[in-house]
Request: fold
Amino acid sequence: MRFETKAIHSGTDVANPNPDVVPPIHRSTVFEHSKEGHHEGDLNYTRVANPNRLRLEHLIADLEDGQSCAAFSSGVAAATAVFKTLRPGDHVLMPDDVYSGNGRLVNEVMIPWGLEFDFIPMADLDEVEQAIQENTKLIWIETPSNPLLNITDIKAVSDLAHEHGAITCVDNTWPSPVNQKPLNLNADLVLHSTTKYFGGHSDILGGAVVGPNSDESGLMEQVRNLQITMGAVPSPQDCWLVSRSTRTLPYRMRGHNENAGRLAEFFKDHPRIDQVFYPGLESHNGHEIAKKQMDGYGGMISFLIDGGRNEALNIVAGSQIISRATSLGGVESTWEHRRSSEGPDSTTPQNLIRISVGLEHPEDLLEDMERALN
Ligand SMILES: *Cc1c(COP(=O)(O)O)cnc(C)c1O
Reply:
């Protein structure tokens, strides 16, 4: 099956013995044992396995060209499980512009637990090579990154990691598997916040970890054990909703790509805007690598306005259609003065605005932008 067909059909027959075209929601937390007692692998208790979660996991794994997926109650819970496959004393390389919630998880939980970290400019291959140590076990990739949309060469970093006995985990939340499939670029794990494009409507929180076809290292088995043991699993209702939204993911993503491409061109030529960060623009410093490893450039754009904090806040306040909100991936466009939502430790420029381009008509978005910028 091709991607669009998989998005609609994959997983619907998993643990669904009934002829339902749309699988039901299984709220029961317990499942009856056979008369001979419980068999290993049978449904038993919902934290361990639930039909809605199994379907969602099958679906996400299939769309990432992977084999195995573990779904979580949030993206950060999924990241926690990845770090917990390591042991205190292990060393991890993180991008210095990693998603702020994952940075916080590292600083407040994983470092006190005993993991060692270095935060580096991950898009620079020489810096990555120099930072690898004997105990480096994991290299974390997020591309395009937040909020400057830096591009890391997934295959080059993964190959480098493997030469040194380490693995890579790619946070693929921004591009989604429609635009980028890290497992086909030699990455070992893929992470998602399904809160974003998979959910697509800003009304569900969720996460996922996906592994490749061969699990020789037992990595995904470990992630799955942690999923069950730490218990940060999504509810059957949320799994059902993410599965439902995923059916339109390829077409939504195409719309996000198209609208963002239009807006990036508009920003590029606007007199009030100094610089635009969008990997689809030829002027972007990661454009060549993005062209090689992405099928579309996504719905996220950042830009620097001619001015400072107050001017940026004024522009964001001046829109009528685009909501002032953080997060991303919804059908509605949102934008924000990124620095103020990242908090006091942020190093994001004061004149930076980040926009999640939604699926409204592009002319309406352009008119709204023009109004706000003036
Ligand atoms: C939102 C986000 C996360 C965290 O996901 P939650 O669902 O909010 O826990 C991780 N990585 C990226 C790139 C994100 O945008």
Notes: The chain has two domains: 3-246, 249-373. Residues 249-268 form the longest helix (20 residues).
